[in-house]
Amino acid sequence: MGVRATLTEIPSDLFEQVIAGREPTFPDQPSHSIDKAWTDFHAVFKVKGPPLSFAIAGDHLYSLSPHRLDDFCDGNHEYYIGFVSPRLVREVADVLSTLTETDYKRSESELFGNDHGYGETFFPVLKAAYTEAAARKNSLMIVIF
User: Fold this and answer.
1) Could you tell me the sign of the dihedral formed by the alpha carbons of 127, 133, 135, 138, in that order?
2) Which of 6, 28, 94, 119 is the most exposed place for a label (fewest CB within 10 A)?
3) What is the C-alpha end-to-end distance of the chain, expressed in Å?
């Protein structure tokens, strides 16, 4: 199973091409590494439900790699690529804007105990990725390898 994750902004017109099954060339776009914290975020946000439960999985699969994040987590694939639609980016950004690092740490501690804190370190990065993409009305591509 992959270890590191990156969230890269994708302009909405290219996102539309991706979900239509085409393979556009992605220009250099803002990118945010959340490293190994993706596993913590995925576990914590799954408990919280939508829209946060889609923050790491996204709401669209890549047509050339159509396996779900849970299949990847089970160890059945070497990487995961998913996309977060502009609509979902805004919804997640709105919810994240109401959460502080302390709120996230509390949720993480309830799930994993107090010795766990990798997600807390990258929470500002995740929040920035969603906030910035939402401000530009872009989507996000999630790559875990």
Assistant:
1) negative
2) 28
3) 7
* Residues facing 32 on adjacent strands: 7
Domains and CATH numbers, the chain: 5-144 (3.40.1760.10)
Q: pLDDT tens digits, residue range 24-35?
A: 888 889 999 999
As a whole number of angstroms, the distance between CA 125 and CA 128 comes to 5
The angle formed by the CA atoms of residues 15, 37 and 113, to the nearest 5 degrees, is 140
Measured CA to CA in angstroms, residue 132 lies from 30, 74, 129 at distances of: 9, 31, 6
SS3 136: coil
Size of the chain, expressed as the number of residues it contains: 145
- For 95-111, write each residue's pLDDT tens digit: 999 999 999 999 999 99
Cα distance between residue 117 and residue 104, in whole Å = 10
Number of alpha helices (DSSP H) and beta strands (DSSP E) in the chain: 6, 5
Q: Is 42 helix (H, G, I), strand (E, B) or coil?
A: helix
Half-sphere exposure of 104 (CA within 13 A, CB side): 26
